[in-house]
Amino acid sequence: MHDFNKPNILLSNRFRGFYPVVIDIETAGFDAKTNALLEIAAITLKMDSHGWLGKDAILHFHVKPFPGLTLHPEALAFNGIDPGNPLRGAVCESEALHAIFTLVRQGLNKSGCNRAILVAHNATFDLSFMNAAIARSNLKRNPFHPFVTFDTAALSGLVLGQTVLAKACTTAGISFDNSQAHSALYDTMQTAELFCELVNRWKRLGGWPLTQAVHV
C-alpha cells in the first residue's frame, strides 16, 4: 500500500504521473532546425512531506554549435554569447542531453513518476530546440513527453496577469535581475521559482488537493 504522505508519492500524484523539469535554452536564432543551440540548463523539482514544491538538482551546459547550423549575429548580440570563446567550456549537444537525461531518469525513479514534462517560459520554443537537438544526437529513450509542456507564460497570464518572465516574477514577489537575464542558468532558476510559486499558491488558496464538490 502506498503511503500518500511520502514526498515521492505526493509528486507522482500531483501532475498525473508527470515529473516536471524546468528547462531554458539559449540559441543562435529562432528556427530549431537551422539555428544552433548554444546553452541549456535544467532544474528538477521535488516535493516535501507537506506537498510544497521546490527546486532539487541543477545542470547547466554551454554547448558547441552543431556543425552546419546558422549563427545569427542579432541573436548573439541579444543573449551575449560568443560561441568561439574557448573559456566557455562548451560540450557537444549529445553530451549535454545525455547528462540531463541521466539526471531526469534518476528523478523519475526516485519520485515514482512515469514521464518527464518540460516546464519553460514560452515552452514551445525550448521544446522545439530540444527535440531538434535530440534528433541530431540520435539519443535513445528520451524521458520527456514529445509535445506536452507546462508553460509558465500561460500560467502566469492566468494567475498573475503577466506573461513576460521578469514582470511575472516581480508580480509574484520573486526578485529578477535584468542584467543576468538571457543566461540559461539564471532564466531557469527564475522560471523554477516562478513555477513552484504558482503551484504552491494554488495549494495555499485551497485548490489542491482536490476536494469533493458539495451539492446543496
From TrEMBL:
Ligand binding (Mg(2+) 2): 24, 26, 182, 187
GO MF terms listed in the record are: 3'-5' exonuclease activity; magnesium ion binding; nucleic acid binding; RNA exonuclease activity, producing 5'-phosphomonoesters
Domain Exonuclease, chain residue ranges per copy: 19-204
Report the PANTHER family cross-referenced here: DNA POLYMERASE III SUBUNIT EPSILON, RIBONUCLEASE T
> What NCBIfam families does the annotation carry?
RNaseT
- Give one Pfam family, short name only: RNase_T
Family (UniProt): Belongs to the RNase T family.
The family database entries (InterPro entries) matched by this protein are listed as:
Ribonucl_H, RNase_T, RNaseH-like_sf, RNaseH_sf
Q: Which organism is it from?
A: Candidatus Erwinia haradaeae
Q: How is the cofactor bound?
A: Binds two Mg(2+) per subunit. The active form of the enzyme binds two Mg(2+) ions in its active site. The first Mg(2+) forms only one salt bridge with the protein.
Name the residues annotated as catalytic in the UniProt entry: 182
The alphabetized list of GO BP terms reads: DNA replication proofreading; tRNA processing
- UniProt lineage: Bacteria, Pseudomonadati, Pseudomonadota, Gammaproteobacteria, Enterobacterales
Q: What is the name of the gene encoding this protein? A: rnt
Cofactors required:
Mg(2+)
Subunit structure, per the record? Homodimer.
Q: Site described as Important for substrate binding and specificity, positions?
A: 30, 78, 125, 147
UniProt xrefs under Gene3D superfamilies: Ribonuclease H-like superfamily/Ribonuclease H (3.30.420.10)
Q: What are the protein's UniProt keywords?
A: Exonuclease, Hydrolase, Magnesium, Metal-binding, Nuclease, tRNA processing
According to its UniProt record, the EC number is: 3.1.13.-
Task performed by this protein: Trims short 3' overhangs of a variety of RNA species, leaving a one or two nucleotide 3' overhang. Responsible for the end-turnover of tRNA: specifically removes the terminal AMP residue from uncharged tRNA (tRNA-C-C-A). Also appears to be involved in tRNA biosynthesis.
Q: What is this protein called?
A: Ribonuclease T
